[in-house]
Amino acid sequence: MFGEVEHELELHVPAREAWDLFGGLEIGKLVGRELPELFQKVELIEGDGGLGTVLKLTFAQGVPGPSGYKEKFTKIDNEKRIKETEVVEGGYLELGFTLFRVRFEVIEKGEESSIFKSTIEYEVKEENASNASLVSVQPLVTIAQLAKNYLNKNKHAN
């Protein structure tokens, strides 16, 4: 069974400023610092924020779904401003998912605005199809709002 959920949020900063936050490790550092209700820890396991980087995400107590997992940066396109990560260990893979991919995309809207689009794509084995209900765009909505507030506060600081 294949599924997809997505969320879009307008950011009042140029796409290049938003991409500076989302394109590498900065968003992970920000989330690790500012969202203790969502993430207990965001750890860099391997890499420097480029392709092949591995992060270990540990969710806070009470967050629905798996307690954590390791994800790998599988695609980074600086020109199109797209970054994809896939769960490579633990988490959703232990719940019968064969794919759990998160895509961050920054779309230029105008000189001073952009759209942040986040998408979760997943595949789950038929015998575990009921676990698809654990997939929620809500953590991405929370991350997008945090990023928007951060970018607005630090507008043009680059």
Automatic annotation (TrEMBL):
One of its GO terms (biological process) is alkaloid metabolic process. It comes from the Eukaryota. The keyword NAD does not apply. The keyword Cytoplasm does not apply. InterPro entries: Bet_v_I/MLP (IPR000916), Plant_def-hormone_signal (IPR050279), START-like_dom_sf (IPR023393). Keywords: Alkaloid metabolism. It holds the Pfam family Bet_v_1. CDD domains: Bet_v1-like. One of its GO terms (molecular function) is signaling receptor activity. Belongs to the BetVI family. This is S-norcoclaurine synthase. It comes from Cajanus cajan (Pigeon pea).
